[in-house]
Amino acid sequence: MLLDNKNFHKSVLFDEVITNLEVCDNKVYVDGTFGAGGYSRAILSKADCTLYAFDRDLTVEKFANNLRDEFSDRFNFIHDKFSNMKNSLENIGVKEVDGIVLDLGVSSMQLDEDDRGFSFNSKARLDMRMDNSIGISAFDVVNHKSEKELSDIIRNFGEDRKHRQIAKNIIKHREKAEINTAIELANIIREVYGKYNPKKIDPATKTFQAIRIFINDELGELKKALNDALDLLKKGGKLLVVSFHSLEDSYVKKFFRDNSGYNDRNISRYVPQDLQQSNDHKLSVLNAKAIKPSQQEIDNNIRARSSRLRTAIKR
Fold first, then answer.
1. Which of 7, 122, 134, 149 would bridge 182 by S-S if both were Cys, CB 3.0 to 4.6 A apart?
2. pLDDT of 41-53, one tens digit each?
3. Whole-prediction pTM value?
């Protein structure tokens, strides 16, 4: 069966992203997290522009090939982390762009492919790597980290209040046998919480999130990507970031505020003008609050419920 970008996966906050990006002819854009190419295809369809898409997951190349066939040399796919976008673009002569979109979530494609180990119900070997050709896997973390290390990971990257109990239960189970699959791990976590409502957020969510963030260094990647984006954007260029949990959203919010002068808003008007302008603020935040998905979108795609969009423009 042909895997078609148009039908396989629709990115969250899709209309809001495309509307806020304001795509124009003859501009250059970056989709830092290509996935199944939802944003990329919409951007290229909206105007006669050029787009560079990044993804460290080799399995998405089948979707990139579809867009190459449709948009020819206006579409360029680069197999790399979005934190390397500045170097990768400079290496091919691209020094500035007009807009950058970063979608920080795990794609539906990755969640639905059983062998990736992102889904709670996966019976394949635990993995969770965005690029499953390098680095340690979730299997390595779950079966080889100490109880304290597991507890710290779950607390720091998942913010789960039962991090100690979860770590202890993981150790108890792995002493009997290796924990091989996502569904095994999910059930071990659920034991700590006892009964839960399947219509609500699964108790395993925060621990899975924590392990995924840890093994993929997602916060480190985000920090570098935001700084590179700031350097790459032309004056008037837009930066749009879609996040899915509080750690990411808090960092994006802080980055936008630190670089927009928000923290200087209480400076007295009696402070000399030259001192007020001593900080070189590079961004203007376009929306005071994060844009959230509509109830209709959440009803159609439950994975959109925690998504948040923040937008800024380069001064």
1. 122
2. 999 999 999 999 9
3. 0.85
